[in-house]
Amino acid sequence: VQLVESGGGSVQVGGSLRLSCAASGYGGSSTCMAWFRQAPGKEREGVARIATGSGNTYYADSVKGRFTISQDNAKNTVYLQMNSLETEDSARYYCAADFRVPCGLRRDAYNYWGQGTQVTVS
Fold this sequence. Notes:
mainly beta, 4-stranded antiparallel sheet
């Protein structure tokens, strides 16, 4: 499984960004897809996840109501729409995938990771 993130960048407080994660190499099977983030000196934390078969989503409390995870099955792509960004959202954002269900938001629930994309909010 290969995951390639894009869409990061620099944005002002209150702004928006949309991250994309293009997935390949898994034959289109139902998966758990998630976004994690890691700021310097901090642990990698789960932000949002989606079960691609059912579309069921789950969010960390810190982003609930501001971030939306979605999928485009035709493009094998998962998105993270980030609105009302805060300085605390600055981090490197990683896309993750796994086939084990039920889908969780713990780091150890995911075996496949992208290289990440940087988000800076100032």
